[in-house]
Specification:
Elements: E1 2-10, E2 13-19, H1 20-24, H2 30-38, E3 58-63, E4 72-79, E5 86-87, H3 93-105, E6 115-122, E7 128-134, E8 156-163, E9 181-185, E10 188-197, E11 199-205, H4 219-224, H5 227-240, E12 256-261, E13 272-278, E14 281-282, H6 288-298, H7 304-309, E15 316-321, E16 324-333, E17 336-354, H8 357-371
Parallel strand pairs: 2-3, 4-6, 11-12, 13-15
Antiparallel strand pairs: 1-2, 1-17, 3-4, 4-5, 6-7, 7-8, 8-17, 9-10, 10-11, 12-13, 13-14, 15-16, 16-17
Amino acid sequence: MKIEAEWMRGGTSKCWVFETEQLGETGTSPDVLLPRLFGSPDHRQIDGVGGATSTTSKAMILHRPAGEGVDVEFTFAQVGIEEAAVDWGSNCGNCSAVVGLYAIEKGWVVPTGDVTRIITRNTNTGQIIIQRVSTPSGALPIVPEAEMPGVPFPGYRVGLGFQDPAGKTTGRLLPTGSAADTVTADGTPWTVSMVDAGAPVAILRAEDLGLDPERYDNWFAGVELQLETLEHIRRQAAVRMGLAATPAEAARAVPKVAIVAAPAQTDPESDVSVMMLSMGKPHPALAITGSIALTLAARTPGTVLHDITGGTVQPTLRLRTPAGVIETWSEERDGSLLVGVDRTARTLATTTIHLPEALGSAVDASLASATN
Protein backbone atom coordinates (compact mmCIF):
# COMPACT_ATOMS: atom_id res chain seq x y z
CA MET A 1 0.00 0.00 0.00
CA LYS A 2 1.19 3.53 -0.80
CA ILE A 3 0.38 7.00 0.53
CA GLU A 4 0.78 10.28 -1.35
CA ALA A 5 2.37 13.07 0.68
CA GLU A 6 4.16 16.40 0.45
CA TRP A 7 7.37 17.07 2.33
CA MET A 8 7.40 20.72 3.35
CA ARG A 9 9.40 23.16 5.41
CA GLY A 10 7.44 25.54 7.57
CA GLY A 11 9.53 28.10 9.46
CA THR A 12 12.32 26.22 11.23
CA SER A 13 10.53 22.87 11.13
CA LYS A 14 9.92 20.18 8.51
CA CYS A 15 6.78 18.11 8.28
CA TRP A 16 5.05 15.52 6.13
CA VAL A 17 1.70 16.79 4.88
CA PHE A 18 -1.18 14.38 4.30
CA GLU A 19 -4.81 14.87 3.36
CA THR A 20 -7.39 13.39 5.72
CA GLU A 21 -9.00 11.33 2.98
CA GLN A 22 -5.67 9.76 1.96
CA LEU A 23 -4.90 8.62 5.50
CA GLY A 24 -8.46 7.35 5.85
CA GLU A 25 -7.98 5.06 2.86
CA THR A 26 -5.35 3.07 4.78
CA GLY A 27 -7.99 1.86 7.21
CA THR A 28 -5.69 2.11 10.21
CA SER A 29 -5.34 4.57 13.05
CA PRO A 30 -2.84 7.44 12.64
CA ASP A 31 -1.57 6.52 16.12
CA VAL A 32 -0.33 3.25 14.62
CA LEU A 33 0.37 4.38 11.07
CA LEU A 34 2.44 7.53 11.63
CA PRO A 35 5.08 6.11 14.01
CA ARG A 36 5.71 3.23 11.61
CA LEU A 37 5.91 5.52 8.59
CA PHE A 38 8.35 7.75 10.45
CA GLY A 39 10.46 4.79 11.65
CA SER A 40 9.70 4.98 15.38
CA PRO A 41 10.68 3.78 17.90
CA ASP A 42 14.29 4.35 16.87
CA HIS A 43 16.43 7.36 17.75
CA ARG A 44 17.63 7.43 14.13
CA GLN A 45 14.22 6.69 12.55
CA ILE A 46 16.36 4.86 10.01
CA ASP A 47 13.53 2.78 8.51
CA GLY A 48 11.14 5.66 8.01
CA VAL A 49 10.68 9.22 6.79
CA GLY A 50 11.23 10.92 10.15
CA GLY A 51 14.14 13.30 10.62
CA ALA A 52 15.19 11.99 14.07
CA THR A 53 14.73 15.38 15.78
CA SER A 54 11.69 16.98 17.39
CA THR A 55 11.64 19.68 14.69
CA THR A 56 11.62 17.16 11.83
CA SER A 57 9.41 14.36 13.21
CA LYS A 58 6.12 16.09 12.49
CA ALA A 59 3.03 15.61 10.36
CA MET A 60 0.20 17.87 9.22
CA ILE A 61 -3.16 16.37 8.24
CA LEU A 62 -5.27 18.72 6.10
CA HIS A 63 -8.99 18.81 5.34
CA ARG A 64 -11.28 21.14 3.37
CA PRO A 65 -14.37 21.78 5.51
CA ALA A 66 -17.75 22.49 3.95
CA GLY A 67 -18.79 26.06 4.71
CA GLU A 68 -18.26 27.50 8.21
CA GLY A 69 -16.10 30.34 6.85
CA VAL A 70 -12.91 28.27 7.16
CA ASP A 71 -10.79 27.49 4.11
CA VAL A 72 -8.65 24.69 5.58
CA GLU A 73 -8.74 22.64 8.77
CA PHE A 74 -5.53 20.99 9.91
CA THR A 75 -4.39 18.63 12.62
CA PHE A 76 -0.82 18.58 13.88
CA ALA A 77 0.91 15.34 14.92
CA GLN A 78 4.16 15.35 16.89
CA VAL A 79 5.52 11.88 16.18
CA GLY A 80 7.62 10.28 18.89
CA ILE A 81 11.16 9.25 18.07
CA GLU A 82 12.23 6.86 20.83
CA GLU A 83 8.55 6.03 21.39
CA ALA A 84 6.02 4.62 18.92
CA ALA A 85 3.52 7.29 19.92
CA VAL A 86 1.86 10.43 18.57
CA ASP A 87 1.22 13.54 20.67
CA TRP A 88 -1.94 15.38 19.58
CA GLY A 89 -1.98 17.78 22.51
CA SER A 90 -0.74 20.94 20.82
CA ASN A 91 -0.15 22.70 17.53
CA CYS A 92 3.12 23.56 15.76
CA GLY A 93 3.27 27.21 14.73
CA ASN A 94 6.20 26.71 12.37
CA CYS A 95 4.51 23.86 10.51
CA SER A 96 1.26 25.86 10.45
CA ALA A 97 2.94 28.03 7.82
CA VAL A 98 2.73 25.20 5.27
CA VAL A 99 -1.07 25.11 5.36
CA GLY A 100 -1.75 28.29 3.40
CA LEU A 101 0.99 27.53 0.88
CA TYR A 102 -0.32 23.98 0.36
CA ALA A 103 -3.84 25.31 -0.20
CA ILE A 104 -2.65 27.67 -2.92
CA GLU A 105 -0.36 25.15 -4.60
CA LYS A 106 -3.16 22.53 -4.68
CA GLY A 107 -5.75 24.98 -6.00
CA TRP A 108 -7.88 24.87 -2.87
CA VAL A 109 -7.60 28.66 -2.58
CA VAL A 110 -7.27 31.04 -5.55
CA PRO A 111 -4.73 33.85 -4.95
CA THR A 112 -6.22 37.36 -4.87
CA GLY A 113 -4.14 40.53 -4.88
CA ASP A 114 -0.63 40.96 -3.55
CA VAL A 115 -1.49 39.14 -0.32
CA THR A 116 -3.88 36.18 -0.20
CA ARG A 117 -5.78 35.76 3.07
CA ILE A 118 -6.55 32.16 4.06
CA ILE A 119 -8.64 31.31 7.13
CA THR A 120 -7.41 28.12 8.78
CA ARG A 121 -8.44 26.25 11.91
CA ASN A 122 -6.20 24.00 13.97
CA THR A 123 -8.25 21.07 15.28
CA ASN A 124 -5.84 20.26 18.14
CA THR A 125 -6.71 23.52 19.87
CA GLY A 126 -9.65 25.01 17.97
CA GLN A 127 -7.41 28.00 17.16
CA ILE A 128 -8.28 30.15 14.15
CA ILE A 129 -5.09 31.22 12.36
CA ILE A 130 -5.46 33.80 9.61
CA GLN A 131 -2.66 33.17 7.14
CA ARG A 132 -1.42 35.88 4.80
CA VAL A 133 0.57 34.47 1.91
CA SER A 134 2.55 36.84 -0.27
CA THR A 135 1.16 36.60 -3.84
CA PRO A 136 2.41 39.63 -5.79
CA SER A 137 0.22 40.31 -8.84
CA GLY A 138 -2.11 37.51 -7.72
CA ALA A 139 0.32 34.59 -7.89
CA LEU A 140 3.07 32.92 -5.92
CA PRO A 141 6.48 34.28 -6.93
CA ILE A 142 8.23 32.07 -9.48
CA VAL A 143 11.30 32.16 -7.25
CA PRO A 144 10.68 32.49 -3.48
CA GLU A 145 12.80 35.25 -1.97
CA ALA A 146 11.55 35.77 1.60
CA GLU A 147 14.09 35.09 4.34
CA MET A 148 13.85 34.47 8.08
CA PRO A 149 16.19 33.74 11.02
CA GLY A 150 17.20 30.11 11.41
CA VAL A 151 16.81 29.11 7.76
CA PRO A 152 19.73 29.58 5.33
CA PHE A 153 17.58 29.62 2.17
CA PRO A 154 14.53 31.67 1.15
CA GLY A 155 10.92 30.54 0.94
CA TYR A 156 7.45 31.98 0.42
CA ARG A 157 6.39 34.54 3.02
CA VAL A 158 3.50 33.47 5.24
CA GLY A 159 2.14 35.64 8.03
CA LEU A 160 0.36 33.77 10.84
CA GLY A 161 -2.21 35.68 12.87
CA PHE A 162 -3.55 33.78 15.89
CA GLN A 163 -7.06 35.08 16.56
CA ASP A 164 -7.84 35.62 20.28
CA PRO A 165 -5.31 32.92 21.24
CA ALA A 166 -5.69 33.05 25.03
CA GLY A 167 -6.83 29.84 26.72
CA LYS A 168 -7.41 27.68 23.65
CA THR A 169 -6.08 24.53 25.41
CA THR A 170 -7.02 25.06 29.08
CA GLY A 171 -9.76 27.66 28.84
CA ARG A 172 -7.77 30.49 30.47
CA LEU A 173 -4.75 32.62 29.65
CA LEU A 174 -3.52 31.95 33.20
CA PRO A 175 -4.64 28.35 33.87
CA THR A 176 -3.78 28.49 37.58
CA GLY A 177 -5.42 31.89 38.03
CA SER A 178 -2.06 33.44 38.98
CA ALA A 179 0.52 35.27 36.91
CA ALA A 180 3.30 33.49 38.78
CA ASP A 181 3.36 30.34 40.91
CA THR A 182 5.87 28.36 42.92
CA VAL A 183 6.65 24.84 41.71
CA THR A 184 8.80 22.47 43.73
CA ALA A 185 11.16 20.15 41.87
CA ASP A 186 14.05 18.20 43.37
CA GLY A 187 13.31 19.85 46.70
CA THR A 188 13.84 23.36 45.31
CA PRO A 189 11.10 25.98 44.83
CA TRP A 190 10.95 27.61 41.38
CA THR A 191 9.01 30.68 40.29
CA VAL A 192 7.06 29.79 37.15
CA SER A 193 4.54 31.69 35.03
CA MET A 194 2.12 29.29 33.35
CA VAL A 195 0.49 30.79 30.27
CA ASP A 196 -1.84 29.29 27.68
CA ALA A 197 -1.90 31.15 24.36
CA GLY A 198 -0.96 29.44 21.12
CA ALA A 199 0.31 26.62 23.34
CA PRO A 200 0.64 26.07 27.09
CA VAL A 201 4.06 27.30 28.24
CA ALA A 202 5.84 27.31 31.60
CA ILE A 203 8.17 30.33 31.84
CA LEU A 204 11.22 30.46 34.14
CA ARG A 205 13.90 33.06 34.83
CA ALA A 206 17.33 32.25 33.41
CA GLU A 207 19.00 33.57 36.56
CA ASP A 208 17.15 31.00 38.69
CA LEU A 209 18.92 28.32 36.65
CA GLY A 210 22.30 29.95 37.10
CA LEU A 211 22.37 31.26 33.53
CA ASP A 212 24.05 34.62 32.87
CA PRO A 213 21.85 37.03 30.84
CA GLU A 214 25.02 38.68 29.54
CA ARG A 215 26.32 35.39 28.10
CA TYR A 216 23.42 34.04 26.08
CA ASP A 217 25.75 31.98 23.87
CA ASN A 218 26.58 29.84 26.92
CA TRP A 219 22.99 29.01 27.83
CA PHE A 220 22.79 25.85 25.77
CA ALA A 221 25.46 24.04 27.76
CA GLY A 222 23.95 25.21 31.05
CA VAL A 223 20.47 24.08 30.07
CA GLU A 224 21.71 20.68 28.89
CA LEU A 225 23.08 20.02 32.39
CA GLN A 226 19.66 20.70 33.95
CA LEU A 227 17.30 18.88 31.58
CA GLU A 228 16.18 16.41 34.23
CA THR A 229 15.27 19.18 36.67
CA LEU A 230 13.50 21.14 33.93
CA GLU A 231 11.51 18.05 33.01
CA HIS A 232 10.40 17.69 36.64
CA ILE A 233 9.29 21.34 36.63
CA ARG A 234 7.48 20.88 33.33
CA ARG A 235 5.57 17.85 34.57
CA GLN A 236 4.56 19.62 37.78
CA ALA A 237 3.37 22.54 35.64
CA ALA A 238 1.31 20.16 33.50
CA VAL A 239 -0.62 19.11 36.60
CA ARG A 240 -1.05 22.71 37.80
CA MET A 241 -2.36 23.72 34.37
CA GLY A 242 -4.88 20.88 34.29
CA LEU A 243 -3.14 19.12 31.39
CA ALA A 244 -2.47 15.92 33.33
CA ALA A 245 -3.76 14.25 36.48
CA THR A 246 -0.26 13.31 37.66
CA PRO A 247 3.28 14.30 36.64
CA ALA A 248 3.84 10.84 35.18
CA GLU A 249 0.88 11.32 32.82
CA ALA A 250 2.15 14.61 31.36
CA ALA A 251 2.47 14.58 27.57
CA ARG A 252 5.90 15.05 26.03
CA ALA A 253 4.93 18.06 23.91
CA VAL A 254 2.93 20.18 26.38
CA PRO A 255 3.47 22.31 28.25
CA LYS A 256 6.59 23.70 26.65
CA VAL A 257 9.26 25.35 28.80
CA ALA A 258 10.67 28.80 28.08
CA ILE A 259 13.72 30.22 29.86
CA VAL A 260 13.84 34.01 29.69
CA ALA A 261 16.03 36.95 30.70
CA ALA A 262 16.57 40.58 29.87
CA PRO A 263 18.73 40.99 26.75
CA ALA A 264 22.46 41.45 27.16
CA GLN A 265 23.57 45.07 27.36
CA THR A 266 25.41 44.52 24.07
CA ASP A 267 22.20 43.36 22.34
CA PRO A 268 20.11 46.36 21.24
CA GLU A 269 18.15 44.26 18.70
CA SER A 270 15.99 42.29 21.14
CA ASP A 271 13.59 42.86 24.04
CA VAL A 272 14.15 39.50 25.75
CA SER A 273 16.44 36.49 25.47
CA VAL A 274 14.65 33.13 25.19
CA MET A 275 15.59 29.48 25.09
CA MET A 276 12.69 27.07 24.68
CA LEU A 277 12.59 23.34 25.26
CA SER A 278 10.74 21.05 22.86
CA MET A 279 10.27 17.34 23.53
CA GLY A 280 12.77 17.57 26.38
CA LYS A 281 15.59 19.24 24.44
CA PRO A 282 16.64 22.85 23.69
CA HIS A 283 14.85 24.12 20.59
CA PRO A 284 17.24 25.26 17.83
CA ALA A 285 15.09 28.35 17.25
CA LEU A 286 11.69 28.91 18.86
CA ALA A 287 8.34 27.13 18.86
CA ILE A 288 6.06 29.68 17.20
CA THR A 289 3.04 28.69 19.27
CA GLY A 290 5.30 29.30 22.26
CA SER A 291 6.17 32.75 20.94
CA ILE A 292 2.46 33.61 20.98
CA ALA A 293 2.29 32.63 24.65
CA LEU A 294 5.38 34.72 25.38
CA THR A 295 3.84 37.71 23.62
CA LEU A 296 0.72 37.59 25.77
CA ALA A 297 2.80 36.91 28.88
CA ALA A 298 4.71 40.13 28.18
CA ARG A 299 1.36 41.95 28.14
CA THR A 300 0.17 40.41 31.42
CA PRO A 301 1.20 42.11 34.72
CA GLY A 302 2.90 39.86 37.27
CA THR A 303 4.34 37.29 34.89
CA VAL A 304 8.03 36.50 34.84
CA LEU A 305 8.24 37.97 31.35
CA HIS A 306 6.25 41.12 32.12
CA ASP A 307 8.74 41.88 34.89
CA ILE A 308 11.49 41.82 32.24
CA THR A 309 9.79 43.77 29.44
CA GLY A 310 8.06 46.39 31.62
CA GLY A 311 4.53 47.69 31.69
CA THR A 312 4.24 49.35 28.27
CA VAL A 313 2.38 47.29 25.69
CA GLN A 314 4.28 47.45 22.41
CA PRO A 315 2.97 46.42 18.96
CA THR A 316 5.99 44.14 18.50
CA LEU A 317 8.10 41.90 20.73
CA ARG A 318 11.65 40.99 19.67
CA LEU A 319 12.77 37.59 20.94
CA ARG A 320 16.44 36.59 20.91
CA THR A 321 16.68 32.88 20.04
CA PRO A 322 19.57 30.54 19.14
CA ALA A 323 18.69 31.11 15.47
CA GLY A 324 18.45 34.91 15.67
CA VAL A 325 15.81 37.50 16.55
CA ILE A 326 12.16 36.57 15.93
CA GLU A 327 9.63 39.40 16.02
CA THR A 328 6.00 38.90 16.96
CA TRP A 329 3.23 41.44 16.44
CA SER A 330 -0.13 42.23 17.99
CA GLU A 331 -3.07 44.10 16.49
CA GLU A 332 -6.77 44.64 17.11
CA ARG A 333 -8.91 43.69 14.11
CA ASP A 334 -12.71 43.50 13.87
CA GLY A 335 -13.00 43.31 17.64
CA SER A 336 -10.48 40.47 17.93
CA LEU A 337 -6.87 40.39 19.05
CA LEU A 338 -4.50 39.00 16.45
CA VAL A 339 -1.09 37.90 17.70
CA GLY A 340 1.25 36.77 15.02
CA VAL A 341 4.59 36.26 13.43
CA ASP A 342 5.92 36.06 9.89
CA ARG A 343 7.41 32.78 8.68
CA THR A 344 8.53 31.32 5.36
CA ALA A 345 7.54 27.99 3.83
CA ARG A 346 8.51 25.85 0.86
CA THR A 347 7.55 22.51 -0.63
CA LEU A 348 10.57 20.20 -0.66
CA ALA A 349 9.15 17.14 -2.38
CA THR A 350 5.98 15.53 -3.70
CA THR A 351 6.31 11.83 -3.09
CA THR A 352 4.79 8.41 -2.61
CA ILE A 353 5.50 6.78 0.76
CA HIS A 354 5.45 3.01 0.76
CA LEU A 355 3.62 1.45 3.66
CA PRO A 356 5.81 -1.14 5.42
CA GLU A 357 4.79 -4.60 4.23
CA ALA A 358 3.84 -5.99 7.66
CA LEU A 359 1.66 -3.00 8.46
CA GLY A 360 0.21 -2.96 4.96
CA SER A 361 -0.70 -6.64 5.21
CA ALA A 362 -2.43 -6.08 8.53
CA VAL A 363 -4.37 -3.16 7.06
CA ASP A 364 -5.38 -5.14 3.96
CA ALA A 365 -6.55 -8.01 6.17
CA SER A 366 -8.65 -5.69 8.32
CA LEU A 367 -10.20 -4.10 5.23
CA ALA A 368 -11.00 -7.52 3.73
CA SER A 369 -12.58 -8.63 7.00
CA ALA A 370 -14.71 -5.49 7.12
CA THR A 371 -16.11 -6.12 3.64
CA ASN A 372 -16.92 -9.81 4.19
